[in-house]
Design brief:
Length: 362
Amino acid sequence: MSALEIARTANAPLNSWTKEQIKEIYDTPLMELMHQAQLQHRKYHNPLEVQMCSLLSIKTGGCAEDCKYCAQSSKYDTGLKAEKLVQVDEVMEKARIAKENGSTRFCMGAAWRDMKGRKSGMKRITEMISRINKELGMETCVTLGMVDADQAKELKAAGLTAYNHNIDTSREHYPNVITTRTFDERLTTIKNVQAAGLQACSGAILGLGETTEDHISFLHTLSTMERHPESFPVNRLIPIPGTPMADDLAKLPENSPRKLQFDKMLKVICTARLIMPGSKIRLSAGRYGMKEHEQFLCFMGGANAIFTGEKMLTTMCNGWDEDKAMFAKWGIKPMASFRRLDNTMKVPSSEATKPVYVSASS
């Protein structure tokens, strides 16, 4: 049986994929790959629903990490000044605006390596989470760097929905991008998050000078986790002047296989939809620079979540009005809060059945 047939005939998400099978799917001619991904998408999701998420930087700049792409690293001169953790009331106002404009998940990011010694910061963040949930009825997601098991449980107790911790790229390419945190440390944080009962939001950044083999490798890492990530953010790098990655990419010739082309991004989305069918696939950083027809193709290939609103962490974001107009044109409606599948990320048993939509109250 071909890898495509395995993906399409499985009754629940699989975590037994090999790199060879993923490559077979990835290498499928794009027209056929998109068709199969759309069929898979309709099997597990309502194709007319897209989750609208808004992202706020609650602590900008001054990060001790050396991620070669990041404007917030203290290692590089990008013109970004380090700021303190914002106040709860300011966050609540931003969340209210997001909800009024249709966003159902509110995400908060802090430029920290980890949460060690940040008790006061954790207290303020858990208050943000609790109030957003109780007063606004929105899902919440945070990205705070590495967290241990106890910290993950504290965030869960506050009502957090999901924790974002991207693996960024393949294990093989990772040392070329980051040296201050290992690939396995990232996986440990994801395990801590899932063990606490939180949903893991974990994806990649495309355009870091990686190859097709790196795409297959990071898809293999995520799709063979015991539980697939609840959501898979697909970021397209925005080269930031002053970062080493911007300099590295500028030196590559235009026809270099290490320069990201849109068809490769689309193949990643389609392949992810086929091998991680229950996960939300989120168009994240870099969507601002995409043409409307490119976004349309991504949705056809299985993407069903976006970041929308005033801005991303430090880069531009498509605005709510723009996205609402696009949705109206295509017949798409925002996904309701706490919309999930009851067995989306679970390893299938011999008696696994087709996923069923459930609400938060089920």
